[in-house]
Amino acid sequence: MRSQTLMLKAGAMSGTYLTRSDVSCNMSRFYRMEVQPDLFDGWTLWREWGRIGRRGQLRLDPYQSEQDGYAALTDLVRQKMRRGYQQA
Q1: Would you say residue 13 has pLDDT above 60?
Q2: Could you give the CA distance from residue 83 to residue 57 in angstroms, rounded to a whole number?
């Protein structure tokens, strides 16, 4: 996981895409996260989630620095991986 986080910091607009599927429960979910600069010298963590093949919900979380945005992204990736999501 740490190598992925270091790779994400190399580009200004990078992110990750996670999926979670379970045929027995008819579950097919995705979770996409990106850290991008905004127009006001801040950074925004874009979070989109939902059912694979459908439009998902979107949430934008503002951060003062790029490091804060990537720290939040890293925490979310760890949390989602513990819940069964996998790198797509």
Answers
A1: no
A2: 19
Q: CA–CA separation, 63 vs 41, rounded Å?
A: 10
**Considering all CA atoms of the chain, what is the largest pairwise distance in Å, rounded to the nearest integer?**
46
Q: Quick count: other Cβ atoms within 10 Å of Cβ 23?
A: 7
**Which tokens go with 21?**
């599927």
Quick: pLDDT tens for 33-82.
999 999 999 999 999 999 999 999 999 999 999 999 999 999 999 999 99
CA distance 14 to 27: 27
Q: How far is CA 68 from the centre of its chain?
A: 14
Across 13-77, where does the E strand assignment appear? Answer: 14-22, 27-37, 43-51, 57-63
* Amino acid found at 7: M
